[in-house]
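In this section we walk through a basic example: taking a raw amino acid sequence and producing a predicted 3D structure, encoded as discrete structure tokens. The instruction is simple. Fold the sequence below.
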Amino acid sequence: MRILVVYPYIPYPVDRGTYQRSFHLLRELARTHTVDLFALSEKGERLEQRPVFEAFCGRVEFEPFEHPEWPRLFPDRLLNPLPTTILHWRADHIREALGRFMAGQKYDLVHVCDIVMAQYFLEEHPEVRLSVDRSRVDLQFQLAQHEAMAHGLKQKLLDWENISKLERFEKRVAARCAIQVLCGPDDEVFVRERISTEVPLLVVANGVDLEFFRPDSAPDPRDAVPTVLFCGAMDYSPNVDALRWFFGEIHDRLLKQVPDLRVWIVGKAPVDEVKAHGTRKGVTVTGGVPDVRPYYRRSWLQIVPLRIGGGTRLKIPECMAMRTPVVSTTIGAQGLDLRHDHDILLADTPETFAQETARALKDAALRAHIEETGYRTVHERLGWGRLGAVLAEEYTRRFGAGTAAG
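The resulting token sequence is shown next.
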């Protein structure tokens, strides 16, 4: 098959969660199919990464792009049928560049990452089948964020204005799609209940690069004192909210049971609220680091106190591949099909999260059990090679030679 892949960013280096999924699925698709890549380069950044993609893609085009300013409430926002979160990725020069890139080419399928790029195929290029890989289901994410975040009345009204438009837009995209690729069964249930009962769906969980995330790739020993890690982009609102919940309702409970606890907060671009946690005794905010693997190996546990779903869950399989046990909320581990007390520990209230974390920190045998079963799980079913092969095979089955477009 010949596939055009369209991304809203250049996913290399793979220094954000969504970049991990986008980069590895692209590379795995290219092992089976002929793939061309069209990607946006925000403010002209990462243009030097072209050779990385030319190594396995046929044609590669990077289009420099700057987000337009957020529209004025009236008339630009309220009178526009598109949600502002979609308009934020809309520009005439992108539409024109895509048209030039596709001119004279015949593709069996266009694979786009997220619905922000699907907008360029709703009214144009109707001859080509469309697949949307959902690193998160936008409507589900915005509903969860609206429920979890403490906003004033004006912001709540603006949230609902965007959500109502987004629901209509999601349905338009679903009607256009030949298939949507989701991260987990929870996403599948949501799409069926709120967006479409007819669009074909495929679940491809998030995974891990098993060659890179190996225990022997970082020989650092475990810290001498109980140490937990929270890792992720620290300007991402669900991560900021997760830390707000942890330090607001869990940390003090945990300190009563583990007084010498140390906490590492590792991730790029920490906002001021995240930086402020570093003033607490035993808490270190590192900011971005060149290599997260030593922190995985030094930590006794990774904690994932997420309350807002809909995002990637890449740090959990990474930790499991590095033989570091994980304590997470159920939302934090969505889509990975992990079992409590088997390959992960799950807890959804402040009391139980503190309890499960303390239990693991105090019980070396429990940590060893979770470590071993988690390591086996990622190697059995969460490596990118296996996951990418599932996607490539499904595309062949549905859209390969002998299948009709439409």
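Looking at the output, two observations stand out. The radius of gyration is 22 Å. The chain has two domains: 2-207+384-399, 215-381. In the next section we compare this with other chains.
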